[in-house]
Design brief:
SH3 type barrels; alpha+beta; 2 domains; Fumarylacetoacetate hydrolase, domain 2; 420 residues
Length: 420
């Protein structure tokens, strides 16, 4: 699977960032005063307008998402040839390069539907321990890829701010709930899985074919109102505590670009085997992806003083995940559910094993009991108005060029006036 396009010696015309020529993620952009989106490919600090290269016929991202594996490989090879320094396409394509900081980056595709999974076993254990110290994981966790159906309508492009949500909360000391802004606003460090090829209703996708339905991966922040969540989540799971905003990074890193960074899925010895429909030797051997992740916070005071964001957590996708993306696709469709082009899966919070690898403030603060001390002297238990959270992800491997996912950033605005 590792063809010449992964050669670490290949160089493009543009300085290196997260987006060397070995990466080439897809997204959408528009120029100032435009309303229509164009398909872009990130290369260095620029965006290549894909339709202008003649490699695709239109700016319909769904046509790209639905390309077969062979078609995607051909497109990748054509892009690498054209973007290699000194190529015969350099002069023509250079006219269709736009500085990334001069365009608006939007959602990488129209999100048709959204499901949030819960595959981060360390997060599930940490969160469960806050409520069930003796048995943090429920009996189904190691058999079923747990998920809930979220709201696609409030998925925001990176950089878009959102308002602190209002909702019902109830203190144990009160007999009745109160209504007002959440006081326990949290981030969740996740990755997004973007579906390319759909399946027909009633036609499950086998574990061996599941990855062919996935176009690529993104960064994803599923903002959460923990106090609203605690009051509402039984018996049917999250609702208002999750549906107010989620943030998605602008670039989809393709499965092809991630080939060098595959790893075996590692489960603790003695854990139950997946049921047969979720079990594949090939998937277990190479279905995880080695993506280093980090979370940074920029507070209003830090911003006013010209300080840089402070990293407050580091984790890794492969080390955090209990299920592979193929298992998610297969389980999602096993009952006959039809996936659509542009559907999004959230992985759930990808916390690591250790305290400095927690992917949410719920875990970092031990349920609100332990403030996080920042370098400038500030403290945080949960997020305050004006705070910006930025997620980043990068893949490293000796002998290969490092690739990245860009940034997934969102800023908390004050709550809107109560409707009560």
């Amino acid at each position: 699977m590792l063809d010449w396009t992964f050669d670490a010696k290949l160089e493009s015309w543009d300085p290196l960032t997260d987006f060397p020529i070995q990466n080439l993620p897809f997204g959408r952009f528009r120029l100032p005063a435009e309303t229509a989106w164009r398909i872009g490919v990130a290369i260095g600090s620029k965006v290549l307008e894909l339709a202008k290269t003649g490699l695709i016929a239109s700016n319909d991202i769904n046509q790209v998402l639905q390309l077969t594996k062979a078609q995607r490989a051909n497109l990748r090879q054509s892009l690498v040839r054209g973007l290699t320094a000194g190529s015969c396409d350099e002069a023509a394509w250079a006219r269709h390069l736009h500085a990334m900081d001069a365009v608006e980056l939007g959602l990488p595709c129209d999100i048709r539907d959204y499901t949030d999974f819960y595959i981060g076993i360390h997060h599930a254990t940490n969160a469960g321990r806050l409520f069930r110290p003796d048995s943090p994981l429920l009996p189904n966790y190691k058999y079923v890829p747990i998920a809930y159906h979220g709201r696609a309508s409030t998925i925001l492009a990176s950089g878009k701010p959102f308002h602190r949500p209002n909702g019902q909360t109830r203190s144990p000391a009160l007999a009745a709930p109160l209504f007002g802004p959440t006081q326990r606003l949290d981030f969740e460090l996740e990755m997004g899985v973007v579906i390319g090829t759909p399946n027909e209703i009633g036609q499950p996708v086998s574990i061996g074919d599941a990855e062919s339905h996935v176009f690529g991966l993104t960064l994803f922040n599923d903002w959460s109102a923990r106090d609203i969540q605690a009051w509402e989540y039984q018996p049917l799971g999250p609702f208002q505590s999750k549906n107010f905003a989620s943030t998605l990074s602008p670039w989809i890193v393709t499965i092809e670009a991630l080939e060098p960074f595959r790893k075996p899925l590692e489960r603790p010895q003695g854990d139950p085997e997946p049921l047969p429909y979720l079990k594949s030797a090939a998937d277990m051997a190479a279905g995880a992806f080695d993506v280093d992740l980090d979370v940074a916070i920029l507070t209003p005071r830090m911003r006013a003083q010209g300080q840089q964001p402070q990293v407050i957590s580091r984790s890794n996708f492969a080390q955090a995940a209990y299920w592979t993306i193929s298992q998610l696709v297969t389980h999602h469709t096993v009952g006959g559910c039809a996936l659509s082009v542009g559907d999004l899966f959230g992985t759930g919070t990808l916390s690591g094993r250790y305290p400095d690898q927690c992917g949410s403030l719920l875990e970092i603060s031990l349920g609100g009991k332990q403030p996080t001390k920042l370098a400038n002297g500030e403290q945080r238990i949960f997020l305050e108005d004006g705070d910006t959270i930025t997620l980043r992800g990068r893949c490293h491997r000796d002998g290969f060029r490092t690739i990245g996912f860009g940034e997934c950033a969102g800023t908390v605005l004050p709550a809107n006036a109560s409707c009560a």
